[in-house]
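Input chain follows. Return structure tokens only.
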Amino acid sequence: MNNNYSNLIYIKLGGSLVTNKKTESTAHPTTIKHLAAEIYNFKSANPATQIIVGHGAGSYGHIQALRNKLHLCAHSSERWSGVLEVAQAVSQLSRIIQRALHLAGLQAKLFHPSESAICRDKQLKSLDTTKIKHTIDSQVIPLIHGDICFDETCGASIISTESIFAYISTKLQPTNIYIAGTEPGVYDSYPDGNIIPAISASSRNTYFTNITTSKSPDITGGMKSKVDIMLELIRHYPDITVRIFSGTKPGNLTNALTGQYAMGTILSDNHPHS
């Protein structure tokens, strides 16, 4: 491990959870409020635990990105206009979530990954984590989000919160990553299947053909992409455990963070290691 953050966790608030993904730039303020309160209560009960919070773009990014065809390369001036539109929209949502955390009693500093991120062929290659580290050291919560970033080969690329989490994990390794969305976990067959209680790197192929992308506009690949990115991270850092669950019902995030109830889908390394 390349850091001293033995009590560091990441919490992702999914775009489908904090926004109405089918209606452009529409937040779910009541949901955001209860999620912020649950993070505050957990932090108050566990003051030694350090937290990074991330959120998806939801209807503050995916709809705009698809309208401007940003899943393609962004080189033309018209496409760059779309890049700026998406960046502005995501920033708006971040400020809403930052204010909710503040009102709940938490100090959170907002980081826009696009300010330092460099991609190549739609893959995140570098991101400055120095200020994120200093923020954690100052007992302040870094708040990050999926973003649209400069791409050396493609002009600009949409990078998911999971991709950003995976990159930051190489510098600031968490013990756990909690991904709260609207689905109760990962289905073995969507939408009529069962929730898979656990997936490991070795069992990935058993399930992966049936895991779907997303039922609402999602330019970053939906559930399949989330699972793939997280399992690849665990392959390199087998001490990390990831939980994917629904944060819709008040109390669910608390239950996930405290481990009181078996819920959602656990992604982990299933091979014992010394």
